[in-house]
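Folding problem:
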Amino acid sequence: MPGPRSIKAKLTKENLKTLPKLLKYLFKFYKWQMILVFFLLTIVAIASTSSSVFLPIIINTISYTDPLTKITYINSFDSIKNDLIIIAIVLASIHVLGVIAAILYTQIMAFISQGFLDKLRKDMFNKMEKLPISYFDRTPHGDIMSRYTNDVDAIRQFISQTLLQAYQAILTIVFVVFMMLFYSIWLALIAFAGVFIITKIIKHIGGNSAKYFMKQQTSTGYVEGYIEEMMNGQKVIKVFNHEEESKQKFDELNDNLYLDAKNANYYGNILMPILNNFGNLLYIIIAIVGIILFAFNSWNLSIGRLFDSTYQYVGIAVVVVFLGMTKQFTQTIANVSQQMSMIAMAMAGAARIFNLLEQKEEYDDGYVTLVQTKIKEDGSIEETNERTHNWAWKYQHRTSDKLEYVELKGDILLDNVDFGYYEDKLVLHNIDVYAHPGQQIALVGATGAGKTTITNLINRFYDLADGKVRYDGININKIKKSDLRKSLAIVLQDTNLFTGTVMENIRYGRLDATDEEVIEASKIANAYDFITRLPEGFNTMLTHNGANLSQGQRQLIAIARAACADAPVMILDEATSSIDTRTEALVQEGMDKLMKGRTVFVIAHRLSTVRNSDCIMVLDKGRIIERGTHDDLLAKKGTYYRLYTGAFELE
């Protein structure tokens, strides 16, 4: 497992590319709502800075300064009463409008943020269901889960808070900069110099904070993934007395998380006090310089005078308004810097989510479909929507308009197949398998010999390196994967049961199966007796992969699920491995009925379970070294003979 620090440089480089991608994804669903939100935010930003505009107006209304004596006089209340009332009404109206806009945009954003996350999670899950098995082979499941939790939550915070605060801060900064230049370019230059220094501080301290916040996010994913893995493997941990080693590994991962979180919060926590105190220092400098300029009457350089040569505010009004704007300016910059780590976390999370969404989907160029059919009196095949238990491949030729129906018989051929999970390392070599309709083909061999890999190729979980697989004479690359897999039922050694009732888990094999068909399937698998003894029978709720059942009972439900699917080809990968000998005898009777008339591939370590197979293939290191019936292989006195007559089974 790679450490958290091994992928951060890449994530940091992708940040700038991820932001527009995330915004484009957001506007794809909520374009007009977001435009409305930004409009309302503009009103809020104007309202929050309106005091800076009206403060010098108010000061100049109630007072005036003699330019010669520099003595300030207060105007009489009667002479300014009407002006003050108008100013108060306008200012109050602006703030009321700002409050209304704030209420509206927060309500709209609650709808947008939750709706966006709902669509994002759906898109992630839908994409995940379309990914090839190889993606899940190479990606830790805990890492995938972390994208649904930590990364989605980081985006939630960015959409609902950080994005809006950043936009409002930009508007505020633009407005304040203009107003500073409008009143006094000299004081504005001092303020800009102070902000330049603040930016340098943010770049150094804030950059480290963002870096460690991203590392913290990835470390959290590793910790959560490890906890999930340990929860699933508690029985194995305890039976092998591996508790101490597990704790040591967890301590190592948790310490990495601690260090990353500590560094992130260290830099994040010292940034604000430094910026606040520097802002106070700048506040004092502006006050001193403003008083000096006022004393020497040096207010001539300003944008206000460029528009109006008669423009002149009372000097003290400029100082007062600049003090307020400086405070607002530095606080806004500080607030933006505080959001930088959140932006970095969101972009890192978004990069990981888009990495999932942009994964190459399972490729399927098949055009042959599977349909229900019935045989007409003249012997021709007719497609029907009825469940007739007769199937055919609907073959629409691409080079002509000819439509052909090929009866599904279950004839499987692997012709000179090579395969490797990695291009430079083959695990199957020159595999030839012939399974005629109704035959039972057994695959035996040591672990890693390639038995399960062969069945995975029949399912098209992976594509071949060389050779062909034909199903009823049709290259399986031409068959749509969903239709191909519909014709196959599989029972795995590792049983997967889903949250739901026993009835629903068996019906998972065929969703349109009636209750009677589900019950019949349970009888075929000899699961009916134990199911009826459960507290609520077929309506008993199963959770946590059927943790309230024994391993053997879980396997019986998996076999019943395959029976319910009623597929013409079955794959049994150690289907009876978790069943005791007595139960196995009962199940074998049901399995014989289930396999009748079907092509069956059996993977087994217990050689006693494959004696009646039509053909037994012995694999070793990805090659078929022997093939034949049970009696034929015993007569050869080769590998199978030594395995069968020895006092051991394959492991």
Summary: The first strand starts at residue 63 and ends at 65. The first helix runs from residue 8 to 62. The mean pLDDT is 79. Residues 493 and 574 are 5 Å apart (CA to CA).
